[in-house]
Amino acid sequence: MKRLLIAGIGAIALLLIVVVVRTLMHQPPTAVNTAGVEIELNESALAERLSQSIQFQTVSYQSPELKDQSQFSGFIDWVHTSYPSVQESLEYIQLNDSMLYRWPGSDPSLQPILVTGHYDVVPVIPGSESQWQQPPFSGAIVDGTIWGRGALDDKSGVLGILEAVTYLLEAGHQPVRTLYLSFGHDEEIGGPEGAAAVAAYLKDQGVQLAWSLDEGSFIFDGLIAGVDSLVAAINVAEKGTLTLDIVAAAEGGHSSMPPQTSAITDLARAITLLEENPVPGGLEGLAADMFDKISRHMPFVPRVFFANQWLFAGLIDDQLSAAPSTNAMLRTTTAPTMLSGSVKTNVLPIEAVATVNFRIHPRDSMDSVENYVTDLVASDSISVQRRSGANASSVSDWKAPGFAIIAQSMREIHGDIPVAPGLMIAASDSRHYGQMADNAYRFNPLRLTPELLTGFHGTNEKISVADYAQGVRGYIRIIAQGTAK
Description:
The structure is a single chain. This protein is α+β, with helices and mostly antiparallel strands. The protein folds into 2 domains: 43-231 and 393-482, Zn peptidases (Aminopeptidase); 240-390, Alpha-Beta Plaits, CATH 3.30.70. 39% of the residues lie in helices and 23% in strands. It has helices at 2-25, 43-54, 69-82, 84-89, 155-170, 195-204, 263-276, 285-295, 300-307, 309-322, 324-330, 366-377, 401-414, 430-433, 450-453, 465-482, and strands at residues 91-95, 98-103, 113-118, 141-142, 145-147, 179-184, 209-220, 231-238, 240-249, 253-254, 333-340, 347-348, 351-360, 382-390, 419-424, 437-448, 462-464.
């Protein structure tokens, strides 16, 4: 017995030593010796132009007849007059209301790159106008902050790119590699006449891009628990989407004589099954690499778990799955969004329908998710019907030159910050542009804090003048380096 006790204590001690040693070795890489780049900008002028752009109500509605064409035409004309050097020096073509520029490089043998954004915005939620601290289309500049719809999503991206190219033109930059700029007008409704038309045009011209950069992730500040520094998360893929109708059928009848089960109760059980049995996932591939890089900057205790996944994999998965933001990185997510049933309070429905939206992880497909749902909930009274969807994008190479250029640019502007590949859990115009690119990256070089998150498609969208100027500096370095060779 004594020998067993000693052996047990020895095994525990050895385990602790292994865990501690692996944790101590799980450190950030040696500091990258990247010299900071000083870029002088007139920040007040930058802010004023962004403010003016926000005042154009370039709202994308699901119903085409609601579109105010004058706002889109006005914005395009304003860009032409506000950025004359871009208009005069670059080739320009307009595809519907989307704007495509080409800056020819001196070496046509090199594959071009594409830097993009979209200038359309989502509507302001009706009735929420009074909740805005500044009117949503005022572009008000108050106490160093620019307010309004599009300040983050995504007029700051479009204008940031235009400001960067203007700066480089005035500095005499001569691109070696050809640069395309595309500014979509309908990203918020899927880009069918904007980015899709641009991608079709590039295909007709025989253009295959080395890489593209679209909106996506940001420079996170305070958004990753346990990490005090800024983190540049560069998305290398985006989720797909699948919308299914879960349909429950029954005989119906009068509510005064309800059966033991009805279409409503059968549907409720099916939805509960979906909620209790999420699509399988886990910390592997892209997500594993992202958390491996980020966790090296965490304090000792949380670092213990990520450094020893062989021991704590189950616990890590449980913890990440419990938070909506990290759960979405691990798996295809399930979100019931719409319900319909009877047309009258005293009528039992003959059909009840739940519409469920899935955001598809790159490891899954529309077919595999639909099959999973069907196997889980289908019965004599429950059927599964596909409404619409699109598979996830391919996963771009985060060891390729394009990713390295974006990463180096962020370190030149912000210092030796962590850079990691990420997965975009929403959708972007890269679903179209990525078809014409060897690698498609999704990243805005702008700082994002927890306070700013609610502005996306919500109220009080804003950006500070200083953060916007830093974003312009980021675009300057990305474009300068991306076209240098």
